[in-house]
Amino acid sequence: MPSQVAEQLHVDLGARGYDIAIGPGLIGRAGAEITSLPNAPNRVVVVTDHHVAELHLAPLERSLSDAGLAFDAFVVPAGEASKSFASFEKLCEALLTAGLERKTWLIALGGGVVGDLTGFAAAVLLRGLDFVQIPTSLLAQVDSSVGGKTGINSAHGKNLVGAFHQPRLVLADSGALATLPRRELLAGYAEIVKCGALGDAAFFAWLEEHGAHVVEGDAKAQIRAVATSCKTKAAIVAADERERGRRALLNLGHTFGHALEAETGYSSALLHGEAVAIGMVMAFDLSVRLGYCRPEEADRLRRHLAAVGLATDLSDLPQVDWNAERLLGHMRKDKKVSDGRLTFILARSLGEAFVTQEVPESEVLALLQDVIAASALARRAIG
Ligand code: NAD
Question: Can you tell me the distance from the alpha carbon of 62 to that of 50, in angstroms, rounded to the nearest whole number?
Answer without folding.
Answer: 18
